[in-house]
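Re: the 145-residue chain
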Amino acid sequence: MSENQLKGVNEKRKNVQYKDLKAAVEAGGCKDGFKKPLTCSPFVRTFEYGAESDSYWNYNHMVLQLEDCVDVMKHLYPEYDYLFLFDHSSGHDKQREVGLNVKKMTKSFGGTQRKMRNTLITREKGYLGPFRHKLNPGDMQSMVF
């Protein structure tokens, strides 16, 4: 990407917020969610992983990079539609705010706990798995501790 093209992309990004504001704050370092000017092509990122470095590549990083890449493509090739394919490990993937996560659960009584919620069993193929089960589509599964 030439300097001139990069300048044009940054002009269009001025005063524009990322669509996922929480990801922009957590991974992009944007306190207000506004896009920072690109200094180079966003298609390749160098990342120092680990607890003492840039942390780990997760959904937040991926979604910001995707949006940066889309900004470039829309500026350089506005006449095309785009398809992005991902091979993204779900190990550090985005989770629901109130989702149950074994890494965030306490091992003993006390403290704050994530709120348990009911799950409506649907007819989606594979929802109940291949094994014999007691629940049927339309049943409500409840967890009690």
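The chain has a mean pLDDT of 81.
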